[in-house]
Amino acid sequence: MADGQVIGNIRHIYVGVRQESLVKFLVCVKQVPDSWAEKKLGADARLDRAGVDAVLNDLDEYAIEEALRICENSGGNGEGGEHSITLLSMGPDRATEAIRKGLSMGADNAILISDEALSGSDALATSLVLAKAIEASGAHIVLCGTESTDARMSVVPAMLAERLGWPQLTFAGELKIDAAANKVTIKRMTDEGIEEMEASLPCVVSVIEKINEPRYPSFKGIMAAKKKTIETRSLADVGVSGDQVGSASSWSAVVDSALRPPRSAGIKVVDEGNGGNELVSFLADKKIV
Amino acid sequence: MDPKSALDLLSIDHLLSDEERDIRDTVRKVVDDKVRPYVADWYEKGDLPARELAREFGKLGLLGMHLEGYGCAGTSATAYGLACMELEAGDSGLRSLVSVQGSLAMFAIWKFGSEEQKQQWLPGMASGEFIGCFGLTEADYGSNPSGMITHAKRDGKDWVLNGSKMWITNGPIADVAVVWAQTEDGIRGFVVPTKTKGFQANIIHKKLSLRASITGELVFTDLRLPEDAVLPGVVGLKGPMSSLNEARFGILYGTVGAARDCLEVATDYALSRIQFDRPIAAFQLTQEKLANMALEVQKGFLLAMHLGRLKDEEKLHPDQISLGKLNNVRMALEVARMSRTILAANGVTLEYPIMRHANNLESVLTYEGTSEIHLLTIGRALTGIQAFK
Ligand SMILES: Cc1cc2nc3c(=O)[nH]c(=O)nc-3n(C[C@H](O)[C@H](O)[C@H](O)COP(=O)(O)OP(=O)(O)OC[C@H]3O[C@@H](n4cnc5c(N)ncnc54)[C@H](O)[C@@H]3O)c2cc1C
Ligand SMILES: Cc1cc2nc3c(=O)[nH]c(=O)nc-3n(C[C@H](O)[C@H](O)[C@H](O)COP(=O)(O)OP(=O)(O)OC[C@H]3O[C@@H](n4cnc5c(N)ncnc54)[C@H](O)[C@@H]3O)c2cc1C
C-alpha cells in the first residue's frame, strides 16, 4: 500500500458501525539498549546487549501514552475502566524491566514472548510471532512506535498489518478513535503537508514523537505495576514452530561489519583572497556540489 | 579498564528493590529534564519557579510521598530517601521545597491534624496545588525554640495569633503555614491559611546559600483564627520535633546526592583536563582525592540505607537520625570542597554545580538542627548527660 502518496485525501476502508465503544488496545513494545550507550556488535555480528542498560524503546512510550490518553478521555482503562491496554513484547526474560515501565505508566497487563529459539530473528520472524500473539489476543487496535532505536528498520508495523490483513495507519502525529462509528483517523505530517487517513477497526497504527509528550510514571503507578501480570509465553504457546524463526531461518543475515573509521583531521582553508574558490573546489571534489 | 561510577564500586544498588529503583530512576529523569538545564540560572537570580515545580512533583507523587491516604503515594521511607537524594543531586533548594512540603507541613497535619484539616489540605498539598511552610524558628530563638515569643491567645472561641517567624522556607509563596506558638497549655501548632488578615510574609534577600529556594519572614498581627485551626493531636515541642525528624531523614539521604553529583563532575573533569601533558586524573594526588571521596560518599549511602531500613521497620530512633544527618552533611561539605579543588578556577563558577552545592550545604549544616546540636544529641546518648541546656 503506497500510503505516502496521498496528500490531503481521506481514504475510507469502511466496514460499518460497531455496536460497542469498548476498545482493546495492544501496544507493541521493544526493549532496546539505552540510546545513549555506545553500541557494540558481538562476535556473532549481533548487537551486544549484555553490557548495556536496557530501556523501553523511546517511541513505544509515545504509543503507550497515546493509548492512555485516549482511554482517559473516554471511559478509562484498568479496574473500573471501559477499555484495556495490553503490552506485547518479544524479547529475552530481561525485557520485563522495560515492560514494567509501561505498566507503571498505566497499561493494564503484558504479554512477553520469550524463547531461546527466537534469538537472531529478523523483522519477518519478529512480525510473524507478534502477529500470532495479536490474533489470539482479541485486540481491536495495535499501536507501535514507528521505529526502534536499536535496529531502526521501521518495518514491523507494516509487516504486522500485512500479516493480520488489517489496515495500517503509519507515522501518526495525531490519532482519534471513534469506536462506536468504527472509525480511526490519523494525521501524518510530511514535508509536503498533512495527510489525513482513516480506517476501520481492527487496525495497526504506528506513532511518531510529535504525537504527545509521554508522562513520567507516577509513584502510585510504579507501586501498582508490581501487582499487574506479565504473562510469559513460549513459541509453542503462540503457535509458531522453532524452525520458522531464529537466525537460521531468517531471510536476512549480517554477513560482515566494520567499525566506523576514526575521524581524520579536516582541511584548514586560510582565506588569502581565494577562500571562496578553495571551498567550492573542496565541495566539488567530494561531489557535494 | 573502563572507569566505574563511584556508586557502582560497592554495588549499593543491590540493596534496592525494583520498585525503589524505579522511583529513584524516575526522579533522576525528572531532575535531568526539568531542573538541571535551568537550576544555575535560578540560583543566580535567587528565585525558583516553585509553583510549576510543585505541580510537576505533585503529578509524580513526590509531595508527602511516604504518607498514607489523602492523595499521598504511600511509598516506603527508603523510597522517600532515594527521591530526596536525586532531588538534592540537582540542588538542595529543590529538596528543601519537597522536605518542607512533605515532611514538615504535610506531616504535621497528617500526624496531628483533625480529619477536617486533613481533608481540607492534604490532597491539594499532595498534588502541588497548595504550597505549605513550617514556622518554628524565630529571630531570637533558633536552636532553642522552646523560648519562642509567638503566641496564640483565646478570644471567645477564636484564637488570636501575634509574633513572627524567621528563615521560613517557602514562606513567601505558601498557601498554608503550620505555625508553632505558645499558648496557655504549652506550644501548639496552628494551620494558618496565608490569605488570613494579619498574615504578612517578607522575602529574605541577599542569601549566598540555597538561592534556588525561597526563604522568608512571617509576621502575624492580631491574626484571628477559628477554634478548629489548632492541631488537636499534640501539645509541646514534641510536635515540631517529630516533624523535624522526618525532614532530617530526607536530608541524610539528600546530602549523599549532592556529594555524588560533585564527585561525578570532579571525576569527569579530572579525566578531561590536561596539565603537564596528562589528564590530571593521572596524578596520584588527584586519584587520592577521588578515592577518598568515593569512599565517603558510599559510606554515607550505606549509612542512609541502614537508617532507611530501620525507619521502614519503625525502629528508627531520633538519636540515629542525628548521627546520620551530622555525618552525611559533614561528608557532603567535605566532598564539595575537595571536588572544588579538582576543578580549581572552573570550580568557583556557576558553570559547574560544585560551588552551588558547597554553598547550599552550609544552610543544610545549620537547618533542621545545627551540627553542634546533633553532636550534643549524640553526646547525650553516649553519656546520659544533656549538655545543651
Ligand atoms: C544492527 C542490526 C541490524 C539488523 N538488520 C536487520 C535486517 O537487515 N533485516 C532484518 O530483517 N532484521 C534486522 N535486524 C533484526 C531486527 O532488529 C529485528 O528483526 C527486530 O525485531 C525488528 O526490527 P526493528 O527493531 O528495526 O523494528 P522497527 O520496525 O524499527 O520497530 C517499530 C516498532 O515495532 C514494534 N516492535 C519491534 N520489535 C518488537 C519486539 N521485539 N517486540 C515488540 N514490539 C516490537 C515496536 O512498537 C517498535 O517501535 C537487525 C538488528 C540489528 C541490531
Ligand atoms: C536557608 C534556611 C532555611 C530555613 N528554613 C526554616 C524553616 O522552613 N522553618 C524553620 O522553622 N526554620 C528554618 N530555618 C532556621 C534554622 O532551623 C535555624 O537557623 C537553626 O535552627 C539554627 O538557629 P539559628 O540560626 O538561630 O542559630 P543559633 O541557635 O543562634 O546558633 C548559633 C550557633 O550557636 C550554636 N549553639 C546554639 N546553642 C548551642 C548549645 N546549647 N551548645 C552548643 N552550641 C550551641 C549553634 O549550633 C550555632 O553554631 C532555616 C534556616 C536557613 C538558613
Automatic annotation (TrEMBL), chain A:
Signal peptide range in chain numbering: none
One MF annotation (Gene Ontology) recorded for this entry: electron transfer activity
Family matches, as SMART domains: ETF
Cited InterPro entries: ETF_a/b_N, ETF_b, ETF_beta_N, Rossmann-like_a/b/a_fold
Domain Electron transfer flavoprotein alpha/beta-subunit N-terminal: 44-242
Keywords: Electron transport, Transport
GO cellular component, as recorded: cytosol
Any Pfam family matching the protein: ETF
Family to which the UniProt record says this protein belongs: Belongs to the ETF beta-subunit/FixA family.
Protein name, UniProt field: Unannotated protein
UniProtKB/TrEMBL annotation, chain B:
InterPro entries registered for this protein in UniProt: Acyl-CoA_Oxase/DH_mid-dom, Acyl-CoA_Oxase/DH_mid-dom_sf, AcylCo_DH-like_C, AcylCo_DH/oxidase_C, AcylCoA_DH/ox_N, AcylCoA_DH/ox_N_sf, AcylCoA_DH/oxidase_NM_dom_sf, Glutaryl-CoA_DH_mitochondrial
BP GO annotations: fatty acid beta-oxidation using acyl-CoA dehydrogenase; fatty-acyl-CoA biosynthetic process
Ranges for domain Acyl-CoA dehydrogenase/oxidase C-terminal: 236-382
The keyword Ion transport is assigned to this record: no
GO molecular function, one term: flavin adenine dinucleotide binding
Keywords for the protein's UniProt record, in alphabetical order: FAD, Flavoprotein, Mitochondrion, Oxidoreductase, Transit peptide
GO cellular component: mitochondrial matrix
Required cofactor(s): FAD
One Pfam entry name: Acyl-CoA_dh_M
Compartment annotation: Mitochondrion matrix
Residues covered by the Acyl-CoA dehydrogenase/oxidase N-terminal domain: 17-129
Alphabetical list of SUPFAM superfamilies matching this protein: Acyl-CoA dehydrogenase C-terminal domain-like, Acyl-CoA dehydrogenase NM domain-like
Transmembrane segments: none
The keyword Flavoprotein appears for this protein: yes
Annotated Gene3D superfamilies: Acyl-CoA dehydrogenase/oxidase, N-terminal domain (1.10.540.10), Butyryl-CoA Dehydrogenase, subunit A, domain 2 (2.40.110.10), Butyryl-CoA Dehydrogenase, subunit A, domain 3 (1.20.140.10)
Residues in coiled coil: none
Acyl-CoA oxidase/dehydrogenase middle domain residues: 133-222
PANTHER family registered for this protein in UniProt: GLUTARYL-COA DEHYDROGENASE, MITOCHONDRIAL (PTHR42807)
Stated family: Belongs to the acyl-CoA dehydrogenase family.
Protein name per the record: Unannotated protein
Species classification: unclassified sequences, metagenomes, ecological metagenomes
